[in-house]
Amino acid sequence: MDGTPDLETLRLQVEQLTTAVEALDAPDRTPQQRLDRALSYFSRTFRDDPTGPAFGPWRRIYKAIGDPPVGTTISVKIDLLTPEEQSTITQALTELAEHVKKTCEEAERTAAMTAETSEGSEA
């Protein structure tokens, strides 16, 4: 296997990362609450380091928040982040969500084609 998560895992990652990106723009929350919610969803998305193209943006987020151990609760005071670090988190999280969504869509197409092929061979 190439390290790509299964389809159900990809769907869950898309949902969690989409929620994380949306949390960054939540008008009814303070900037700290937005960051906390986004990082909470981000940290729950990956139990291990992602592989392939997802690794780059994932790693940039971890570096921007001080490189905590993977799997630990992430708590970052927004006042301690530079504007560049805040921007990096937003950009990398958006990039990561887009990448995982694209990977999930490709996996869904592959699964659909595989299902059609197997149905055709049973006839």
Q: What's the alpha carbon Rg, rounded to whole Å? A: 17 Å
Proportion of residues in β-strands: under 5%
Number of domains: 1
Cα shape = elongated
The strand count comes to 0
- Could you list the spans in which at least 5 consecutive residues all have pLDDT below 50? none
Average pLDDT across residues?
89
Structural class based on helices, strands and sheet pairing = mainly alpha
Gap from first CA to last CA: 30 Å
Helix content: 55-70%
Largest sheet: none
Walk me through this protein's architecture:
The structure is a single chain. This protein has helices spanning 7-23, 31-45, 55-64, 83-122. It has 123 residues and is mainly alpha-helical. It has one domain (7-117). The longest helix is centred in the last third of the chain and has 40 residues, at 83-122. The chain is elongated and about 60 Å long. The model has no long low-confidence stretch (mean pLDDT 89).
